[in-house]
Amino acid sequence: RAIAEPPVKTAPGSNGVATSEGDSKLKESILQNLLNTGSSTHIEALDAKDVYRGVAQSVREKLVAAFNRTQEYWREEDTKFIYYLSAEFLMGRSLLNTVQNLGLGGPYGEVLKELGVKMEALVDAEQNAALGNGGLGRLAACFLDSIATLDLPGWGYGIRYKYGMFKQALKGGYQDELPDIWLTNGNPWEIARPNITYRIGFYGTVDQFQWSPAEEVIAKAYDNPIPGFQTSTVGNLRLWEALPLHEFDLAAFNKGDYVQAVEERRKAEDISAVLYPNDATEYGKELRLKQQYFFVSASLQDVLARFRERHGANWPLLPEKACFQMNDTHPTIAVAELMRLLIDCEGLGWDAAWAITQKCLAFTNHTVMPEALEKWPVAVIGKLLPRHMEIIDKIDTIWKDSLKEQEKVLGQVEAAAKSAPPKPPKAEIKPKGAVESLTDALTFKAGEPSGGKEEPEEGEEEEDPVEAALAKYSIITENPWEKGVKLVNMAYLAVVGSKAVNGVAAIHSEIIKDTIFKDFYDVMPHKFQNKTNGVTPRRWLAWCNPALAALITEALGGDEWINDATRLSGLRKFADDKDFQAKWRAIKLANKERLAAKIKERTGVTLPTTPLYDIQIKRIHEYKRQYLNLLSVAWRYHQIKAATPLERSKFVPRVVLIGGKAASAYYMAKKIIRLTTAIGETVNSDPDVSDLLKVVFLPDYNVDWAEVIIPGSELSQHISTAGTEASGTSNMKFAMNGCLIIGTMDGANIEIAEEVGKENLFVFGMPAEDVQGWRDGKRAEWKDYDPRFTTALNMIKDGVFGDKEYFQDLADSISDMSKGNDWFLVAPDFTDYLRAQAEVDKLYLDQDEWTRRSILYTAGSGFFSSDRTIKQYADEIWDVKPMPVPSS
Ligand code: H53
């Protein structure tokens, strides 16, 4: 990653930011900043962190200048903006990306070389900005990169968490969670905006539609400039910090109650303190809803304030100036908040406000996992946000009334009405103060069936048949697990309140229309779209894999592919070229060596670099099926042990690397981590297997690890049960870096197969359309356990890898399908998985063919650039046009 030798030469000045001031001025700037931040220009006397801060400050000066120019220009032009509302932005490190995106790689590389500084050491001195869990948060970061690169007026809005994603350590092979204290050395990439603040209310009462919050905090803005590539556009990520309204309670202090004196501060700061470490898993904590409302309200207030400054009360114009994209259900309280701001604060009538809201908002769904689709108890929202609960209730009522006029629904309602006389309408929801402990809110377990509708008990009031016919469209629903408890289905609220709803891969966008949003799709098919995810080819190919990037640039005769990834298809003609293959292979080997060195540094394990590098890095989750991978590793180990020396020599040596974090309360996921480390301990110390098999768990997997792992990988695993992974995005990054994929026909794997050629992937497993049938029916009588599966599972059960008791329930969870176990179908997919793995081994022996395919992956990955995704959002949902800053 040394930028001393930049992978791509961007001519200085070509993007309006790159310096033309010459090396001497740049050197001066670096030295001055070293003095400012580290009190010395004697580099030898400074540690890497000091040097990093000095260099980062000098880069920041240029970044901020371009940022100010961009923002000023956009303000003057009064152009339409896209606002990306997201609870997560997984930005990773900024120094290298900023330098490279600004086209300053060459000049900085030269000067640092002169100063005797290794760029790599500087890069490693930077903390990761890990304000996200996984795919969803990293997608948001890639989107910001593309929005800026495409000159689209747009900002991200989120939370400036004081503590990001926890650091994962291994303690005796088990996951240990440590806080991510990422701001200790300051953050040179942000600009504090103490003068941009908003009040955010919670709790309290509503009287005549007027909300009087019982608690208030301040949201303070921090801007994080986002440099585009080969443009002078610098976009923005505005993050909010929560602060108390009153710094200090002097009266309490004077009375000697020192804790009470700072109580308000502590309570306020709690809101932006920690990122919830759940990725597509349980929700339900009140503080999380507080966080969601906090950043949504601050962001909407901020946009409306700027609008008002320019256009006064001309609110019908708002949809021509602003579009808000809601990233998953986390920011969907925006539907009610925008209504509240327009009605209660700006004095609009309901209908006018609703028309504006529905034109301004759009919603992306990222999962069909029931536990990640937020459903907040009415009592929780009613207590925390009483006015919003009223608004949601009214939205629900009006929405269902409007359906009665729809022909499709009309038939159902009339039929229902005929079968019984209508009852008087149900009483309005009275949300105030309904629960004492809000933190008792629900959590759902993976894979649990949604409860069936119960018959009313004797003496119990029967439901109005019209209401019953409309119930499936209800935003406010009955909790299937707890009778009498009402929930707000946030995804339904978002669907009703948005102009567009999209899934994140072709198959996923179809599945949501057939399953979770079926009834909504039936009555408003025009809202539903697909936007297949993408990743930025800057960070995920050009900057993280400089050697490959240089070879691609050389082959294609230029670096235009970096912002027009479709040009990567030009590599196809080199796929059979033996010389090119040799160069390609040499780079892969060098990247494997770099990865092995990093693994040595972080785990102490020494790995050979000739074996096949087989990698699965992602959050640990049952649906992602790391377990399937591990069972096949156990089987491979068994086979090698049982083989004669001659047979052993025929095995294709493999290094199996698994990395990922488990949500702290996710019991089974934690066991899967321990199973990986336990298998590693056994296998890696067994002389019988020697270099034929190595298994390593990569601790604390994060963005900076990924930037080294992905370029060094040869095979990557994307093996979720079909229909469960909405898209996946690491599959795209691996493909870009010429890594072959073993995977199911799930998420974006399907589209990767289309682009790369299905025959070039190792595809296996049950198709998505068969999965539900399996779960509902076939599982009950299925007994065809593959004997190899049984052997592998018994090895775990029998304690071959130690920790026998600890693994018992993990083993039980996939043991007897007829009892309802193995929800994610590990056993039924095992046989086909081993077949695909055998194909992998066979192909690896033919290095020319393997390399040919590897080239074809990169060549076919252009579609998965987030530039393509963002163009589609901009054209088909946002209606936002590029607005490049004219060169002065
Ligand atoms: O979002 C990614 C998808 C991936 C999906 C992930 C995701 C989260 O990381 C968190 C919550 C959630 O609902 C979904 O699991 O398949 O690629 C980006 O769309």
Automatic annotation (TrEMBL):
Q: Where is the composition biased (Acidic residues)?
A: 455-466
User: Which cofactors must be present for this protein to function?
Assistant: pyridoxal 5'-phosphate
InterPro entries cross-referenced by the UniProt entry: Glyco_trans_35 (IPR000811), Pyridoxal_P_attach_site (IPR035090)
Residues annotated as carrying N6-(pyridoxal phosphate)lysine in the record are 733
What are the annotated GO cellular component locations? cytoplasm
Q: Which SUPFAM superfamilies match?
A: UDP-Glycosyltransferase/glycogen phosphorylase (SSF53756)
Q: Which UniProt key words apply to this protein?
A: Allosteric enzyme, Carbohydrate metabolism, Glycosyltransferase, Pyridoxal phosphate, Transferase
Q: Which Gene3D superfamilies match?
A: Glycogen Phosphorylase B
EC number(s): the record gives 2.4.1.1
Indicate whether NAD appears among the record's keywords. Answer: no
Name this protein carries in UniProt: Alpha-1,4 glucan phosphorylase
